[in-house]
Amino acid sequence: MSDAPATRPPGWNGSTAPRNGLGTAALVLGIIGFLLAVIVLGGLLGIVAVVLGFVALGRVRRGEANNRGVAIAGIVTGALAVVLAGVIVAAGAAFWSDNKDEISDLQECLDDARTDQARDDCAQRFEDQVDAND
């Protein structure tokens, strides 16, 4: 058994292990939020990632953690998730407002359709109506 002192990461001045959990959580939530940005949940996870990333940066500044890059990556991926989710929601709202009559016609057609072929015909008619509006 060696009596040599344990080495610490550069810049680490604490006597206990660094508390890097928040930075790691921010990055993980940011990545998951970005991947789930097509649903509102992705934007919400992105917001949580940004908040956790800033809290983690505070820990880094106080010398309680040493994963500054991971915390920043969590903030960036979280912000991207929020922006992407916002763009997707805005695009969906624009599509809905531009095509609300066609969408209600599609819903009526699908409600009345009894066979797969009738449902396919409804989908084709909807597609043709949307294309005609462009």
Main features:
0% strand, 2 domains, mainly alpha, rod-shaped
Question: Could you characterize what this model shows?
Answer:
This protein is mainly alpha-helical and 134 residues long. It has two domains: 20-96, no CATH class; 99-134. The chain is 75% helix and 0% strand. It contains five helices and no strands. Helix 1 (21-35) packs antiparallel against helix 2 (40-62), helix 1 packs parallel to helix 3 and helix 2 (40-62) packs antiparallel against helix 3 (68-98). The longest helix has 31 residues, at 68-98. The N and C termini lie far apart (76 Å). The mean pLDDT is 85.
Distance between the termini: 76 Å
Taking pLDDT < 50 over at least 5 consecutive residues as the criterion, the unreliable ranges are none
Number of separate domains:
2
**Tell me about the biggest sheet?**
none
Q: pLDDT average, as an integer?
A: 85
Q: Structural class of the helix and strand makeup? A: mainly alpha
How much helix is in the residues? over 70%
- List the helices and strands in order: HHHHH
Q: Which descriptor suits the 3D outline?
A: rod-shaped
Give the strand tally.
Answer: 0
Figure out the total of helices.
Answer: 5
Rg measurement, Å: 25 Å
Question: What portion of residues belong to β-strands?
Answer: under 5%
